[in-house]
Amino acid sequence: MGLLRRYGVLFLALLSCARADAELRILTEPGPPTAFMKGAELQGFGVDVVRELITRTGSQAQIEMMPWTRAYTIAQREPDVGLFAMVRTPDREKRFQWVGPILHGKVRFYSLKSSNLQIESIEDVAASGPLAVPKQWYSYEVLKGQGLQNLYGVPTPETMVTMFGHGRVSLIMLEDILLRDMLAPAGLTPADVQPQMVFMESSYYIAFSLDTDPAIVAAWQNELAEMRRDGSFSAIFRQWLPDVELPDALR
């Protein structure tokens, strides 16, 4: 083996080791109970799952909260970045490496009970009045693709529920398992809203950038599977979602 080639092999080996030891940036958006700030502390179901995975894998990692659009852009462009919790879709499949699922739920339309709306079809949705959905959500992409004229894209889930509570929109879309926590900032409870038709079921993952070492991603997936086996995942789930049965997809 020539001297130049030997140095090349050594350089690649050192680079591989450096990548394996790289510090990860784990990004998330505000969205209780998955991730939210309580005072100066970052808390939530997803936060606890990710922290446990960081510990079990021995990863060097920091969790950062930021708006979804910014986090999504960073995760597509920069190495050693993870983003939770993201719906895994055919369009996104080849853009990321996936660990999960960590959440699974039914996305349905909700109206205020006082409105007496009855939604049984997309045609009913189109005729119901303004429908607010955060622009960064996959459900918004799907609804936009169906050409709904009453679809109103908003920047955050908090904006959506605030507009809903003030009567500025007739319908919103939410995951059933997140309903209570998502409504709370607007002073609403599940008793105030009427569940309407289910639009889709979604599984949520930790999505790693393509330039993250695949060995790191595999280690995270293996440890998540171990958390399911040893009961620690279900314990975290029950802590944050005590009124929700653990979905089969997460067992």
Describe, in plain words, how this protein is organized in 3D.
With 251 residues, this protein is of the alpha/beta class. The chain has two domains: 129 residues, Periplasmic binding protein-like II (D-Maltodextrin-Binding Protein, domain 2); 96 residues, 3-Layer(aba) Sandwich (D-Maltodextrin-Binding Protein, domain 2). Helices cover 37% and strands 28% of the residues. It is built from nine helices and ten strands. Strands 4-1-5-10-6-9-7-8 form an eight-stranded mixed β-sheet, with helices on both faces. Strands 2-3 form a two-stranded antiparallel ribbon.
Labels describing this entry:
eight-stranded mixed β-sheet; alpha/beta; 10 strands; D-Maltodextrin-Binding Protein, domain 2; two-stranded antiparallel sheet; globular; 251 residues
Q: What string gives the helices and strands in order?
A: HEEEHEHEEHEHEHEHEHH
Distance between the termini: 51 Å
Q: Please summarize the sheet with the most strands.
A: 8 strands, mixed
Total helical elements? 9
Organism: Phytopseudomonas daroniae
Pfam families: SBP_bac_3
Signal peptide: 1-22
Domain Solute-binding protein family 3/N-terminal: 23-244
